[in-house]
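Predict the 3D structure for this chain.
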Amino acid sequence: MIERIKSVKLDKKQVFDCLFLLYYGVVFTRFFLDTTMLPYITWNIEVLYIIGITIGVLKLAVDRRMKTWELIVFGLTITVAMLQYYHRPDEYVLAFAVLFIGAYNVDYRKMLKVYLGLGISYTVFVVIGCLLGYIENLTFTLWNGNVRNSFGFNYPTDFTAHLFFFIAVWCILRYEKITWIEIGVFAAVMLWSYFGCYARNNTICIGLVIMLCILEKVLPSEKKFALRENKVLKAVCVMIPFLIIGGMIFLSLIYNDGNAILSKLNDVFNSRFQLGKYGFVEYGLSPWGKLIEMQGFGRIEGGMENLWNTGLSYFVLDCSYVNILLQFGVVLFCVLVILQFVEMVRNYQADCLFLLMIYIVICIQCAVEHHYLEIAYNPLLFFSMIKYGKFNNK
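Done. Predicted structure below.
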């Protein structure tokens, strides 16, 4: 037995990968808890990120296989993130930079499994605590009589955004192995998202993911292979996210209450363009962004009804792309767009059509909600540097 133990050779890369995944779980927990109605926990931020940087640097020292283009993208991202943090300190940027260092060449499955395992466990705990009365359930009665429940989270859409990303990540991991039972569970979650929280955007996005899963189940293998090999289709899928990003920013910039078409679009998107326009006019563009004080309905006792009693005005830049552009500046925004492009091109080259389409749905979700750069929601932030291994559609 002792000889067998001695014969086991520890791979340094595997050791540091495991340390990084453990660290990612801690950072994810830190940000996830902030999306709930649980009391805020004080974290020693300096120690937390010093540990992360140490793990990341040692991991890079062990794994010396970085390609030239990876080195350029990696260096650009870390440099810009650090400059961004220097000019306007924000923990989201710091966490992104530290995790970006450690995520290099980590198997995507392992990282997504950590996200999914912790995220679902925490969500079940919070929802049960809410139903038992231990965690506050914020309720919001809309003008049309619909009642939105937050189920222990800061806001109903914060809760349903978690559900959407869980389903998207589950589908990435399972892909061709997804069963009709799983699709049925997704449909039940979609109905819960709508009737329990009246979260239209997340309901639609979950529905789109379900449609992709159904197509995967019903299309014959020959047809699926032909679609994966269709370069035009894949190229279109690569471009759509950037059209969404550019479209949301452009429509916010040109928004005018007097334009009937823009006004109607603004109503459909629940005032996203009007709020975005206000943000551009009030704060303007800058290289490194500005601290913008925002106030929504979330985490306010009594919910929507009591917001006005606080004397505060509602203002939230819910569109992720406008939010990042104004809060974190043009430079970091451009780097994130480059990383998105790298991710899409890698999927194009690997014939990962399903993942390309999942990206499109995520971009739609983030066009209406502000979760693109949030560690608690979007684990695909690091996919430009992550190791894909064998994707299930190959």
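DSSP finds 17 helices and two strands in the chain.
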